[in-house]
Amino acid sequence: MSIYKFTVETISGDRIILKAFKGQVLLIVNTASKCGFTPQYKELQQLYEAYHEKGFNILAFPSNQFGNQEPYRNEVIEQFCQQNYQVQFPLFSKVNVKGKNAHPLFHYLTKEAPGIFGSKSIKWNFTKFLLDRNGQVVNRFAPTVKPLQLKKEIERLL
Fold first, then answer.
1. What is the C-alpha to C-alpha distance for residues 72 and 34, in angstroms, rounded to an integer?
2. Are 133 and 126 in contact (CB under 8 A)?
3. Domains (range + CATH), the chain
4. Which residues are CB-contacts of 15 (< 8 A; sequence separation ≥ 6)?
5. Where's the active site on this chain (predicted)?
6. Number of separate helices (H) and strands (E) present in the chain
7. Is 81 noted as a catalytic residue in this protein?
């Protein structure tokens, strides 16, 4: 099993199957606009620019499940990301990333890569999942891990 069977909605409302990203190394991140970790968008964009041409992509999924830190509508989130961080990687519609109403993609990711002490729940914004070119989860990173700290792992997978 891989992520390629899941259907997601882009921030502009189009539905796509993640199979569209087959063959790419992916970093999937749950994001928020009003979080202490929000400046990580800058480093995420730097990773995207450095590795996109080599087959790397970032998939950002805003979520409002942690401290009401993503209160905005999709249009506002997209505008915020572009104006403040010049984000070029794909943004998706707001989703739940934990609990019984979590998007099936996040149920899958947390099952494949449990957090600390085996926890399957995402604890905060900017939790990161690194996937290989076959759509398999390779690693999970806490929000405190800065995106540029992932360079060696990304390079290894590329």
1. 10
2. no
3. 3-157 (3.40.30.10)
4. 7, 8, 9
5. 35
6. 4, 6
7. no
Helical residues (DSSP H) of 52-95, grouped into ranges: 74-85
Q: What is the DSSP pairing of strand 7-9 with strand 15-17?
A: antiparallel
Q: Put residue 147 in one of left, alpha, beta given phi > 0 → left and psi -120 to 50 → alpha.
A: alpha
pTM, rounded to two decimals: 0.95
Residue-level pLDDT, tens digit, the chain, 158 residues: 789 999 999 999 999 999 999 999 999 999 999 999 999 999 999 999 999 999 999 999 999 999 999 999 999 999 999 999 999 999 999 999 999 999 999 999 999 886 666 667 798 999 999 999 999 999 999 999 999 999 999 999 99
